[in-house]
Write a structure and sequence with these properties.
The chain is an all-beta fold. It is about 0% helix and about 45% strand.
């Protein structure tokens, strides 16, 4: 909430926190402001065999604002890897499905999130802005040997290929979000799409990449696939 003097004067910030405020009413005689304050709480749950009635909350994991934006995934051995602000900063953590043995993997003061684990369980690809911009990084499964894989202006949503050789991700080319892939050991990225594309997920056979594609005619996002080989031949679905 800000106060802007009228007809002139410098704007002044009234609130200084991360809480959302909705609606505003000014009590003229008292000089006080009434508003609605709202917060969002995210918690981790595990559902067995797709039965929502049997869902259980991971013990001691909760009250983490907007943690769904920081990512969540499975390790090959059945553990969970996820982004959390439990340390007071956005970092990557690992734990058992019941919430036990929580381990913090990143300790930087910058933002780390969106972790995805290689099929062999050796590496974690993740999003970080520790180099000044949001790029794709890779580290060992224990959080050591972090390596920057990309250097674009704005990147996110990493996804390993089934053979573990590539990381597919969202990147920015000519100020447009597109799909790219980079070798797990690093190297020159290869562009997969030319039009606006988002949220890549690699198919189990490693041949295609599902994603959201902007239809230039209708200006609506559609589900689409593109070959991982990189021929830019996008197929959309209604």
């Amino acid at each position: 909430i800000w106060f802007i003097p009228f007809p002139q004067g410098e704007p002044r910030r009234i609130t200084n926190d991360l809480i959302n405020y909705n609606g505003l009413s000014f009590a003229r005689d008292t000089g006080k402001v009434v508003t609605t304050q709202s917060t969002k709480v995210s918690r981790l749950w595990v559902v067995n065999d797709g039965d929502a009635e049997q869902a259980t909350q991971a013990a001691s994991v909760g009250i983490d604002y907007f943690s769904e934006k920081l990512g969540l995934g499975w390790l090959p051995d059945g553990r969970l890897i996820y982004g959390s602000r439990a340390s007071g900063n956005a970092d990557i953590w690992m734990m058992n499905p019941d919430g036990s043995n929580q381990k913090q993997l990143t300790v930087e003061t910058t933002v780390e999130g969106q972790p995805t684990v290689s099929p062999d369980g050796r590496y974690v690809a993740f999003l970080s802005n520790r180099a000044g911009t949001y790029n794709i990084w890779r580290m060992d499964i224990d959080g050591t040997h972090a390596k920057q894989l990309t250097t674009g202006p704005w990147e996110n949503s990493p996804s390993f290929t089934p053979d573990g050789k590539w990381v597919v991700y969202n990147g920015t080319v000519h100020e447009k979000p597109v799909l790219l892939k980079v070798a797990t050991d690093g190297g020159t990225p290869i562009q997969l799409t030319d039009d606006i594309s988002m949220r890549p997920v690699v198919s189990p056979d490693g041949k295609m990449v599902a994603h959201l594609h902007l239809d230039e005619v209708t200006q609506r996002m559609k589900l689409a696939v593109v070959p991982l080989a990189g021929d830019h031949q996008v197929k959309t679905f209604e």
